[in-house]
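Anyone else keep sequences and structure tokens together like this?

Example one:
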Amino acid sequence: MKPLSIKTKLFGGFGLALVILAGTAFASWRSLQALIAAQELVARTESVITEVEKLLVETLDTQTGARGFVITGDEAFLKPFLSSQAALPGQVALLRRLVADNPAQAQRLAELDGLCRARLEIAGQLVQMRRERGFDNAVLSPLVQRGKETMDKIRVQVRELKREQEALRTERVAASRTRAEQTLVIILLGSAVGFGLVGLSSYKSYAEIQARQQAEAEVRRAAAEIEDLYNNAPCGYCSVDKDGRVRAMNNTELAMLGYAREEVVGKRLITELLTPASGETFRRKFPEFVSTGRIADVEFEFVRKNGSTFTGLLSATAIKDEAGHFVRSRSTTLDISARKQAEAERDRFFNISLDLLGIASAADGRFKRVSPGVTDLLGWSAEEFLARPFIEFVHPDDRVATLREVERQTVMGEKVLHFENRYQHRDGSWRVLSWRSVPQPGGLMYAIARDVTERKEMEEQLRQFNHELEQRVAERTAELSRVNEKLKTAATRLARSNRELQDFAFVASHDLQEPLRKIQAFSDRLVTKCGPALDDTGRDYLARMLNAAARMRRLIDDLLMFSRVASKARPFEPVNLATVATEVVSDLEVRLEQTAGRVEVGPLPALDADPTQMRQLLQNLIGNALKFRRPEVPPLVAVWSEQSNGHVHLNIADNGIGFDEKYAGRIFQVFQRLHGRAEYEGSGIGLAVCRKIAERHGGSITARSTPGVGSTFTITLPLRQTQPGSDHEQIT
């Protein structure tokens, strides 16, 4: 046989190498595909385990959020609840896709989905119950136990699902390892192809490792968030083992106690953090807790590191292993010191209150608690009063009304602001109580009462007195009516007499003027024609006669002026007193110059009045101030006003001679003078006219004075007149 050439060998070898390379490449490709499939199955198994753990975490978040809200009532705790509630459907959908190739696990996942939905519904119902019915109802609800049982089933399902996935992962990892070994043999035989496959496998492995590391980082981040939520929750979290030794405690409870974590966790028994009495309570209740697996709302007195104490409200559930053996507790602690202090203050107020306080239950119709004031008032002991339905103490005639008021509170939810009934004293007497009451959840009524027995007796006496008084008033009214009729008759006669007297004064004054004018006229003629023929005595007599006639004429004029205050009066109209005062001062200008006097007029208001009489009033008063001046002292007159209660107080003050105030009432009478005619001229009617003008306007006039210092006259007048100007007119 002809030996193969080098070239043939080379090409044969190269071809064989190519064939081997091709075969190696094909075999490596087949093996690599199998390896990739095995790795994907392993990765899918890991994903299922990871997602199942996430599903458990989300479910725990809903439980934690709902529990935190139920315990505290703080809406902030619902944030993880709502977040997890929204995330769970997506989490379940992802798991369905991951286990779609495994019917058994798909069925288990469906059961787990149903349990998660049931747990969400229970948590939602607890949240709604906490909002609507309060802490006690929510904590004591059967939903809590149902939620725990559902959560235990979820853990069992998750545990079984993880166990199956871990077994499947073990099988797939083994298969992957076998494929890898086959691939390694092929790579070693295939040389460069093997290195390529190794490189490709390494690259793929690196990519998968990166993906796994990212997933693990996400898991660590979620774990950190859970740890932060645990450590910084608004309530204390603590776990103790079967020996009562603290195995975990969050930052909140550590802060309550004032310890560092390393001082407590793993080193102290929980009883070392309690007062001796609370420690004894813990030792008594702990075996029962280990057996039942739960304890709720137990109060313990905790001792801080500095020795101070606080009251904590503790609730706990037990963590047990698969065999049902106790592992450790998980408990929450709320610092209720402030609430306990408030309750103590409430109890102290309840005991010392002077009011009658009571808490009653509509369910059994009994008082649950009453203040000492109730038993002191009614004479019953607290035990006797609380043992019987309160309606038995109520007067039979008041029972229907009392039960109606109770129904208003318990059925309709209305407050009772005032209700009176009679309660029986131990001695058989009845006390009248006035009640106010407010309905509370649970069919309770918070009531406050006052003893109004004496007041009711006084009211009855007052009613009798009023009845007697009404009878007496009726008798007196009839008598007064008779007297009033007599007074009206007398007033009519007096008014008629006043009018007749006024007419007489006017007529008499008018009729006297004519003979008086003749006396003055003939006296003037005697002076003119016979004056030179008379001796001194005759001229003196004649002068005296003329002076007397002049005085008589002035007196008649003054009488006419006095009578005209009513008879010639004008209707009231708006009058500006400032304008009137200015005109009066202007009329007195000559007298002011003669006496070097001064009149100072302040702001004066406008009022309803007779303008002529207002002018006459100011003319008389300012004129008198200038007349009755002190010798060698220039007169100073001040006019000002003050207002109050719809009236003006018009003041005219001077620095004149003044007078003794014991004569203050006399100076306003007709013809009354305090000085002789030789000293100061006048008839003594001017101030009487002022008084009459003031009275006609529904006002008054008064005077204050100091001899040698001056006088002040005050006229009080209404600013507005309700009558046209005649109702006040009356001669006195």
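And example two:
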Amino acid sequence: MGECRVTVCLNDICTDFDLNVVASVVLTPATATIAPGDNLRYRVVRARAGRLTVQDVAETFYSMKVPQTGVAFLEDTVSLVRGTEVGTTAVILMSGPTEVATATLTVAEPHSIRVQLRPSNLVIQGENFIVHAIVLDKDGHALTAGSEILIRLSVEGEANVNLIRSTENGTLTDAVAQNAGPFKITARLYSVAGKILQNKVSIYVIISNISNYSR
């Protein structure tokens, strides 16, 4: 992997261009941060004839290993990695005794939550919008929220916002505002790996005004 410069000549006429060389097999995500107790499923990305194919590790002849077992470990012996202690470890894709690809996994304590509204913080009365809750570490890096994370939302205000449905971990929630007016959304990291947090992660609050525009 890396870069190289290629020169093509026709008699005395030459041209140069830079060529990026990438691995034909990589682990995804290549870089990720999770909370202690949470887990993350890795997949294999293959490049063939200019096309990318994403596969579960179990569907390939590869295996995985996590060298720093004090930071994280391979929970299902296939591709599910669980964080244990704060730190950083490599996650290695193996073909027999040969290392094929490497990813970097950081385990960090949750510190705060950022909330975004989609699309583009524009909320229209009667139209669905999405509340995206993102868990951050103390340095502001986004954590990849797995199945062991549970985020809970609460809403108040004149807009009368209904929370319709959400993903299992609560990071994405469909909502709709019944009325025009301001509202406030509060997101809390409720639990990790089934353990209810006594000291709640910092809360990020959105205060927004609803437009009564209708098409």
